[in-house]
Amino acid sequence: MDKERVLAMSRKENEYKDPYTMEIENKANLLAGDAMLTIVSIIFIVSLLVNGEPDYLMWSIVFVSNAFKLVYSGIKLKDKKQLRLGIGYTCLFLMSFIYGMIERIRG
């Protein structure tokens, strides 16, 4: 391949990947995760104080979002550590969801 063709292919691949935009999106995702964790923690504590029992379904939201993010990046980056963490978060999601649903059904 000649130099111009390689450069043209590279430009086409990176056309929509502005580094500044990607950095802003990554920072926004991190802040959104922190905000979600904070809100779920507050709702969990308020539920505990008002109802006298915790609502575990709230934590399933946090666990499932982390699970999907880690499993996806683990597969795409071929990173076994992230994949294992993603599987761990998936297990935490399933446990909190099932336990929360059982508690809701029992009433």
Automatic annotation (TrEMBL):
InterPro entries: DUF6442
Key words of the record: Membrane, Transmembrane, Transmembrane helix
Pfam family, one: DUF6442
Ranges annotated as spanning the membrane: 30-50, 56-72, 84-102
Full protein name: Uncharacterized protein
